[in-house]
Amino acid sequence: MESWGPMLRALLSGPGRRGGTRGWAFRSGQPHLPLAGLSSATELVNHWTGVFEKRGIPEARESSEYIVAHVLGAKTFQSLRPALRTQPLSPQQLQCIQELSSCRLQRMPVQYILGEWDFKGLSLKMAPPVFIPRPETEELVEWVLEEVVQRPRVEGAQDGPLILEVGCGSGAIALSLLSQLPETLALEMKKLLGASLFRWDLEQGPRGGISWHSASQPSFILGQSRVIAVDKGEAAISLTHENAQRLRLQDRIWMVPLDVTLGPKTGPGCGWGTALPGTWWQVALESFTYQWTNVCCVSPSLSTEGSWTHLLPWGPVDLVVSNPPYVFHQDMEQLAPEIRSYEDVAALDGGEEGMDVIAHILALAPQLLKDSGNIFLEVDPRQPELVSRWLQSRPDLDLQLVAVRRDFCGRPRFLHIRRSGP
Amino acid sequence: MRARLLWGAARCLWARQAVGPARRPISYGSTPLEELFTRGGPLRTFLERQVGSETHLRVGGPELAEVAKLLGEKEQELQETEHLLHEETDENDLILEVTAGVGGQEAMLFTSEIFDMYQQYAAFKRWNFETLEYFPSEIGGLRHASASIGGSEAYKHMKFEGGVHRVQRVPKTEKQGRIHTSTMTVAILPQPTEINLVINPKDLRIDTKRASGAGGQHVNTTDSAVRIVHLPTGVVSECQQERSQLKNREMAMKKLRAKLYSMQLEEETSKRYNARKIQIGTRGRSEKIRTYNFPQNRVTDHRINKSLHDLETFMQGDYLLDELVQSLKDYANYESLVEIISKNVYCVL
User: Fold this and answer.
1) Contact status, residue A163 vs residue A174, Cβ threshold 8 Å
2) Cβ neighbours of B238 in A, within 8 Å
3) Do B219 and A381 form a contact (C-beta atoms < 8 A)?
4) Are residues A17 and A161 in the same domain?
5) A85, A409, A411: which to substitute to probe chain B, counting the most B Cβ within 10 Å?
6) From start to end of A86-187, where are the E strands?
7) Which parts pass through the membrane (chain B) (predicted)?
């Protein structure tokens, strides 16, 4: 009898990711097939909640609600129209719920099952093993936005900020920053110039500028906010790329596959001062070609060998933001199966004290940041102390911990570090 | 100079007419009156010609000037009154809350219809409508829901909708064809601006499902529901409408601010509104304001004794509902004016 299991599984499971789970569901002998009496959304939610609870699946009700709502075209069960809750479902919908719920029984995170999740105002595509953004990170983005808006502008400098994100994952931080920033800038520019004088120029393409027309000056490009998104995982780079395109933000984001922990050892003086001369948009234009070759012709060798020196052609950045892997290595074993078996370990494991990648980012920052540039990091609640001590041991970096902010649960979670001026 | 006075007089007369209790303001579809009187407008040109003509000055000049002066003074008075009628919150956005009352499932079905009616009314007025929470019943009715409504003069129009709405009809659930009476409650809370209401972040407790454990990268929870408690008052606001926790928090905060603000307004104005038939805010919430009688195809507003027919059209939330809202606005203005006048009379005596 035992030998029938694998055979049946092989017969039942077609190609593709979900095949295996269907086979599993069958083998378990549980009544997971659509039941005749169950047809409304509410009944299905209750049914699957019961199944999940029995199998010890965390967030049983939430999971079944999200799955049923998703199949019916809503984001949450609470936002499902009442008529849809009581209406009978089609056989296709029942089948779909069945399949997705089987994935949940395998402890797959709901975000991967649905293939999408929300971050701030954006809906982002999610795919394993790319790290799923956590709600805390929404607050990190809020803080960065506050900082960028308050940033004192140098007289005559109309450029939006150039931001570097290390470890972009699905692109949540980079894309939510970009989706918020143009409006902020636009408002400021409106105040400065009067609404009639400026318009968005959609044809600026990769240079991503706002152009501004007035009688005296024929055409003048204003810099928009731009992000350079870096990740060492190919899956992350391509997911960020896809999300950027879905949100029509691809013209203002450059994706570079590289590992910040690799690269040539650098001494002082090898930083920005000696880099390419020229205005930012000339550099940006060159960089665009560069990025294109990287993203479109991404090769494994490039992605593993890419070092941080590839970032130099973009010029010094105003701000570095990162949600680096910060889980202490010894904590990795205790993570829930949803995280351990599905998410990229490299996006979570920060080494012995969770500092491995953080230290690399801080060590690189002086060479990538402008004078008085800022770094914003999400960290473990034990790390503000560690980072502060680490910075004291490296006075050569000219970095100062300016502020620590708590998350919505009151844990010290976010760091603001500033590079001292010249 | 005279032209200005005459123009003032005409406006004055027009404004006075609009205040009457049951009378409706003059012609909404045609050219606005203000426009007729603008510089170069037809009526203004006519009046200017009248005043300018020599004959008129010789015949009734002094009297005309006298009357014009008097009318000018009246205009001034009316402007002051208009200012008195204007409420601080009139321009604000608002939170709409609907709750099923007496009548079980039938009350919940009716609540769902009323919520839809206001959603359509918002679309008719080109306001922005965002559902904040929605708790349906088993058979497609609605237990409780709230929404944020924003747009031009939204609160000014919606503030008279607060109160108990009563429905009389044969429910879908009724097998013997008997007419039932059920109720639901509407509450309208003005949304404060940043200046209207300041909340100390220390007074808030924000509850989420992530509160226990390490948080951050260590956990992956999907429950994004947020509950905010305002500790000094104990007022609670919740939201689980969105997948983004931050979005839920923003919506819950919106609702909390509206609740606290209406409490604050309540205190300030309870004495002022005591005697009025049209109550707004929580004071009016327990009062039966309107009946929807389906067998007679009629809706009656009990505060102004006004009935409208064609219930189906009314429930679509467009021009018929707008007409009733307009009447309520006029009557409320009339009541305020009477109140002000009687107060002044009392002072004189």
Assistant:
1) yes
2) none
3) no
4) no
5) A409
6) 116-119, 122-125, 162-166
7) none
pLDDT digit string (tens) for chain B, length 349 residues: 444 544 554 454 444 444 434 444 443 444 555 555 555 666 666 666 666 655 555 556 677 777 778 887 877 777 777 777 777 777 888 999 999 999 999 999 999 999 999 999 999 999 999 888 888 887 778 999 999 999 988 999 998 999 999 999 999 878 888 999 999 999 999 888 888 889 998 999 999 888 777 899 999 999 999 999 999 999 999 998 999 999 999 999 999 999 999 888 877 766 555 555 565 555 556 778 999 999 999 999 999 999 999 999 999 999 999 999 999 988 888 887 787 777 777 666 5
Where among A116, A147, A166 does a domain terminate? A116
Distance, CA of A339 to CA of B220 (rounded, Å): 7
Compute the nearest-CA separation of A391 from chain B (Å).
23
How far is the alpha carbon of A83 from chain B, nearest alpha carbon, in Å? Answer: 6
Q: Does A121 map to a domain? A: no
Mean pLDDT of chain A: 77
- Written as one string, the DSSP assignment of B159-218 is GGG-EEEEEEE--TT-SS---EEEEEEEEEEEPP-TTT----GGGEEEE-TTSSS--GGG
For residues A231 and A353, membership in a common domain is answered with yes
CA dist., res. A292 & res. A294, Å (int): 5
- Our CA dihedral for A174, A175, A180, A182, rounded to 10 degrees, sits at 90
A347 and A379 in a common domain: yes
Q: Which two tokens stand for residue A107?
A: 């402890």
- Count of beta carbons in the 10 Å neighbourhood of residue A216: 5
A337 lies in some domain: yes
Q: Which domain holds residue A83?
A: 6-116
Report residue A407 as tokens: 């998350």
Write down all domains in chain B, each with its CATH number in brackets: 2-84+335-344 (no CATH), 94-188+283-332 (3.30.70.1660), 201-267 (3.30.160.20)
Distance, in Å, from the CA atom of A110 to the CA atom of A69, rounded to the nearest integer, reads 12
Query: Which one of B138, B242, B249 has the shortest CB-CB distance to A76?
Result: B242
In a domain, A65, yes or no: yes
Residues A274 and A405 reside in one and the same domain: yes
- Please name every residue paired with B187 in a beta bridge, in sequence order, or none if there are none: B97
Q: Are residues A105 and A160 in the same domain?
A: no
Interval A219-234 mean pLDDT: 74
Indicate whether A201 pLDDT > 80: no
User: How many domains is chain A built from?
Assistant: 2
User: Nearest C-alpha of chain A: how many angstroms from B294?
Assistant: 22
Instruction: Specify whether A150 is located in the same domain as A184.
Output: yes
Q: What is the CA radius of gyration of chain A?
A: 24
Structure letter (DSSP) for residue B21: S
- Closest partner residue to A62 among B137, B211, B222, by Cβ? B222
Beta strands in A62-218 (DSSP E): 116-119, 122-125, 162-166, 198-200, 209-212
pLDDT in tens, B90-114: 788 899 999 999 999 999 999 999 9
Q: Model's pTM, two decimal places? A: 0.72
Q: What is the dihedral of CA B332, B336, B341, B342, to 10 degrees?
A: 100
Which chain A residue has its CA at the smallest distance from B147's CA? A79
